[in-house]
Write a structure and sequence with these properties.
The chain is mostly helical. The chain has three helices and no strands. GO terms for molecular function: RNA endonuclease activity.
Length: 112
């Protein structure tokens, strides 16, 4: 077509790049922050921090009677440990996101 400008795919990729260096650096920063925060939070849950008691899921009152303290204590410890495992799984998700962002930065730098 006369008067049309041909744009190569590399030029188009540079202009429309949504996942550039700044975005990836931000993702790496958020990943590091999330890993640190969730690891510490998981450790606090695993050690049964009293301050996190209100954040536990509701007790299943059908599992234990109100007067059976040993059963309730075991159930609460299980709830604390489950929350700790959930935090550590989320931290592992941040590890994956951070590694993918690092890989993307390496790919962007190798292109030039």
């Amino acid at each position: 077509m006369p008067g049309s400008v041909l744009i190569t795919s590399s030029e188009l990729a540079k202009e429309v790049m949504a996942c550039g260096l700044k975005c990836m650096a931000f993702l790496i920063f958020m990943s590091v922050w999330g890993i640190i925060f969730l690891s510490i939070l998981g450790g606090l849950y695993y050690n049964q921090s009293v301050g996190l008691f209100e954040n536990l899921p509701k007790e299943d009152m059908a599992a234990c009677s109100i007067k059976d303290w040993d059963c309730r204590k075991k159930h609460l410890v299980d709830l604390y440990h489950q929350n700790a495992y959930n935090c550590w799984i989320a931290a592992a998700g941040y590890v994956v996101i951070g590694l993918l962002a690092c890989f993307r930065i390496c790919c962007l730098r190798s292109r030039g």
